Amino acid sequence: MSRPFTKVITANALLEGDVIYWTEEATWTRHLSKAEVFEDEAIADEQLMTASAQTDIAVGVYLADVHLENGLPQPTHFRETFRTKGPSNYAHGKQVELN
Question: Which of 6, 12, 14, 49 holds its CA 20 to 30 A away from the CA of 56?
């Protein structure tokens, strides 16, 4: 049995390098909880093209697997979990907010 198609669009902010996520409003957010979750591959691919065209805002745009937990997207892969915590070289940004 194949896994359901449940993904978000993610990238890095061009100027700051922060991890960003595509929203239902066709804008970017730094919070995974506000990301649009796609369950239809065709719609996800269409939105991926739109998001990828914003080269003045985002770089490295791609679809990332998630699962829903209490209605909120959660990463399914270690890499994406790691990215949600921000840069790992020292505590700043999201790491400070989490403490």
Answer: 6
pLDDT tens for the chain, residues 1 to 99: 567 899 999 999 999 889 999 999 999 999 999 999 999 999 999 999 999 999 999 999 999 999 999 999 999 998 888 888 776 655 655 656 655
Three-state SS letters, the chain: CCCCCCEEEEEEECCCCCEEEECCCCCEECCHHHCCCECCHHHHHHHHHHHHCCCCCEEEEEEEEEEEECCEEEECCHHHHHHHCCCCCCCCCHHHHHC
The pTM score is 0.83
Q: Which amino acid is at 25?
A: E
Cα–chain center distance at 60:
11
The closest of 60, 93, 63, 95 to 76, measured between CA atoms, is: 63
Taking a C-beta distance cutoff of 8 angstroms, is the pair 9, 63 a contact?
Answer: yes
